[in-house]
Amino acid sequence: MIYLYVEQIFVYISFLILFLVTLLNLINFFFEIDKINHFSNNGMKFAFLCTTGFLTTRFFQTQHLPLGNLYESLMFLSWGFSFLYLISNVKNKKRLSAPVLATSALLVHAFAVLSLPHKMRESMSLVPALQSQWLMMHVSTTLISYATLLFGSLLAIVLLSIFHGEIKRYCVGNLTNNFEFRNKNYPLISKNFPKQIITESFSYSLFLNSRKCQLIHLLDKWTYQAISLGFSFLTIGIISGAVWANEAWGSYWSWDPKETWALITWLIYAIYLHIRINKKWMGKGSAMAASMGFFLVWICFLGVNLLGVGLHNYG
């Protein structure tokens, strides 16, 4: 009984802190206040420790890795987003990815705590299919891949939202042609405004678009790095899952719905990596492929569990 109270304390404290951290990051995204950076970073560290405390408590209670049902998997996924937040905070001083990761951790945490019924949140013994040494290898690597791939896909969605129209012209370096294009659309600017004002306006436009171009290149780089890492973990998860399936069900691959969607997800991200390497398709084309992966991951992760079909419906 004491384990239950400790778990609830960890879960609800971490949920409250994640909400505050997300709010602070959204405010800081627009106003860039240094003190908010400090508070949000410390808050995420505390939320990460609380989520870790929940997973540790559940481990001592059940005597196995807490990945036996949907609730535990969602909490582990939220833990993964928090961990990525702390890592990105060390490597990325501009903290552009912080609002994405904080919001992701909060939404997953909220879905686990507020949406799932109480019976699904209770600890239980593992079903026979999960009583294997492959549990830690397969499930943990797969969930880590989900967190990393979702992060990369969300960055790609942000990239698509700003990579459009005339920004592309600036990014490829056709600055003069783009300005002439503006003058054709607005001839009064060339005729009625003094040359100094036009020059200052043009310089300011170049400054704004150069910052957007830098943001585009950074987002494209981080998307590629995140998806490359997540793709590696997903590959390990699929291979270890095939070996485990052979031990449990007698075949490496049975075209179970979970296996099929995992393969589709793997292929989409493989296509993204191939497109990303080809410089002709860098930018918008690769970002569209990465964005598709966002929906496929959720279908693969939640679709089978919520529909209750296939060999993986015990989650």
From TrEMBL:
Transmembrane segments: 12-31, 67-86, 98-116, 136-160, 222-245, 260-277, 289-311
Compartment(s) of residence: Membrane
GO CC term (a single one): plasma membrane
One Pfam family, short name: Cytochrom_C_asm
GO MF assignments: heme binding
GO biological process: cytochrome complex assembly
Domain Cytochrome c assembly protein: 67-312
InterPro entries linked: Cyt_c_assembly, Cyt_c_biogenesis_CcsA, Cyt_c_biogenesis_CcsA/CcmC
Record key words, sorted: Cytochrome c-type biogenesis, Membrane, Transmembrane, Transmembrane helix
Domain of life assignment: Eukaryota
Main location (coarse class): membrane
Membrane-protein topology: Multi-pass membrane protein
Name under which the protein is recorded: Cytochrome c assembly protein domain-containing protein
Species of origin: Ceratopteris richardii (Triangle waterfern)
